[in-house]
């Protein structure tokens, strides 16, 4: 199969993982088979590095994840951040101040290579325990470590209204993404997206976009889906993703990525 992909890039939540956040045995098995066939597999996710550790046993020796919408390249097995692309601290302070003026009840958190920094008012996903090494303090008191992703959420505004307001306030100073977490504005430095990080990682491996398949489900996956040689939307994907994808596979709960990769392996025999 001359046009077989050399790299598979897949989002996690809502795409590779089932709706309960688990990785099915079928999916774990086919990921291993794909790598044995000489095809690179890369997770490309909005999750911070610390949320990849819970998947380490499920993915075995799998090596690389692009995390926080492109801010970090993470070695899953070694539990080590390889590279990071962060904000200039003055810009973080400016964006925080401007968002506070526009939305007085906004609360912030910051994902850094060393872990989470969060304000006491910032709401947490109950499915993930706040790590013991997290720093609880005002975002204005951030230390000098680079911020990979700034998180912002309003206590009172509706999800769409807040995201629209946050996007307008941030403007072209940074990139605002939405990965499906209700009303959470995920803000990365300008030019930091899943697509940019994936392009850099692929180039490091000597692989062009035409030999990459990318799978996703939410608007933050759109740049990656557009960049890849073949962009796949799972059947449960957001309308924006389905509109730009080259192909559609079954839903995450039907192991759509695994189904597609099984067919790929059969065609390569």
UniProtKB/TrEMBL annotation:
The yes or no answer to whether the keyword Hydrolase is present is: yes
Q: What residue ranges are annotated as transmembrane? A: none
Molecular function as annotated in GO: magnesium ion binding; phosphatase activity
User: What are the entry keywords?
Assistant: Hydrolase
Query: Matching SUPFAM superfamilies, A to Z?
Result: HAD-like
What Gene Ontology terms describe where this protein resides (cellular component)?
A: cytosol
Domain of life of the native organism: Bacteria
Q: Which Gene3D superfamilies match?
A: 3.30.1240.10, HAD superfamily/HAD-like
User: What positions belong to coiled-coil segments?
Assistant: none
The molecule here is called Cof-like hydrolase
Biological source species? Intrasporangium calvum (strain ATCC 23552 / DSM 43043 / JCM 3097 / NBRC 12989 / NCIMB 10167 / NRRL B-3866 / 7 KIP)
